[in-house]
Amino acid sequence: MKTEELIPNAQEARVLKMLRALANPARFRIVLVLAERKDCTSGQLAELLPLAQSSLFDHLAALREAGVVQVSSDGPNPNRYYCLDPSAIDFLTAYLSGLGQQARSWKELVKVAQKERTMEIRDATREDAAAIAHIYNQGIEDRSATLETQLRTAEERAEWLAARSSRHPVLVALDQSGAVVGWASLNSFNPRPAYDYVVDFSVYVARERRGQGIGDALLGALEERARLLGYHKMVLAAFPGNAPGMRLYERHEFQMVGIYHEQGMLDNKWVDVVLMEKLLH
Ligand SMILES: CC(C)(COP(=O)(O)OP(=O)(O)OC[C@H]1O[C@@H](n2cnc3c(N)ncnc32)[C@H](O)[C@@H]1OP(=O)(O)O)[C@@H](O)C(=O)NCCC(=O)NCCS
């Protein structure tokens, strides 16, 4: 069994000292007040915080010792001004944010980089109809995405696009070359006015481009649009065995509402359908 004590390096020691000093509700409040007021005398702090003078001085001393708080050197004790050391707070923030960056998985970093470098998402136009039909047909043929079985043509999708209202937009994701690699739409859930604030949606990514963060980006953009359009809730129906779809919805914090068992007949087999929802407000 190893019994050696871990010796922190200088940077770790500074972080630990600051965290220890801050891990106290009274000191935390002192820091919040100093951040807001820029500087204060101990008398002003005592007026603002329910602390006895002696414990206030102890806390200030601990914060000074940790390098979080500075004090003006001139003047007698009651007129000294206390303020935060901004560079100390910046140091702590930079250290923790560096840890956050490291903690993100490599896969996620690659995904974010790919998205930032290559992704454009915009409203679909008539010119996108052929690509949308192609990608939709891949999803239909896969038999893991939809109960739809009828393949579509570019003309049919062009009519579908033309018939959509501004409350039911279609978005497309483009790669660096401008090719459509995925699409997503907000669909009417139910025409009754009482359901005006609920919207159904679809998201489809080209087979060869799946697993690269495109579905994630499309769903993020769709959710943003749904909020802008004033929807209260997004809902979906999916196959429980659609692992990428379920993962995508989980990631976007959709909650399971229930399962319709043996809801559809696809290729002579019963399929279950999962219902999910996400409240937007
Ligand atoms: C479902 C679909 C839209 C997801 O889009 P995507 O671009 O492939 O997915 P992303 O790369 O954005 O990944 C989303 C999540 O699914 C996970 N995922 C992707 N492919 C996966 C796979 N084959 N198996 C398991 N999980 C997978 C990703 O790891 C990611 O989860 P994470 O962020 O926790 O790592 C896409 O796969 C697709 O178009 N499928 C066919 C059509 C379809 O099923 N549409 C949904 C109908 S309900």
TrEMBL record:
The segment(s) forming the N-acetyltransferase domain are 119-281
The HTH arsR-type domain, residue ranges: 7-104
List keywords of the entry alphabetically: Acyltransferase, Transferase
The UniProt entry, under InterPro entries, shows:
Acyl_CoA_acyltransferase (IPR016181), ArsR-like_HTH (IPR011991), GNAT_dom (IPR000182), HTH_ArsR_DNA-bd_dom (IPR001845), WH-like_DNA-bd_sf (IPR036388), WH_DNA-bd_sf (IPR036390)
Q: Can you provide one Gene Ontology molecular function annotated for this UniProt record? A: acyltransferase activity, transferring groups other than amino-acyl groups
PANTHER family from the xrefs?
N-ACETYLTRANSFERASE, UPF0039 PROTEIN C11D3.02C
Cited NCBIfam families: resist_ArsN1a
This one is known as GNAT family N-acetyltransferase
